[in-house]
Amino acid sequence: MSATWGLLVPLAAITVFPLSKVFNTWVRAKHGYPLEDERRRDKDRLSTTRETELLSAENERLTGKIGRLEERIAVLERIATDPAERTAREIEALRTSD
Question: What is the mean pLDDT of residues 11-35?
């Protein structure tokens, strides 16, 4: 009996892990979970970090652009709401200063 256990214990140790991986993959596939291994998760984590960096850079660029556009809109609003008399006076002042 001891010889049987001596053979079964290493055999069980060798086969349990691969069988558990097969079972785990089958359960994940059956329930719609992604089938990925540890190496892929690390790669995805790196790509997620890179994507976050790119989005942060784009966010900063767009924030600066919005600031510049707000300044331009403020100038246009000031021009549009200025009374025509003042604009005409300023133009006349420029003509007479020459």
Answer: 86
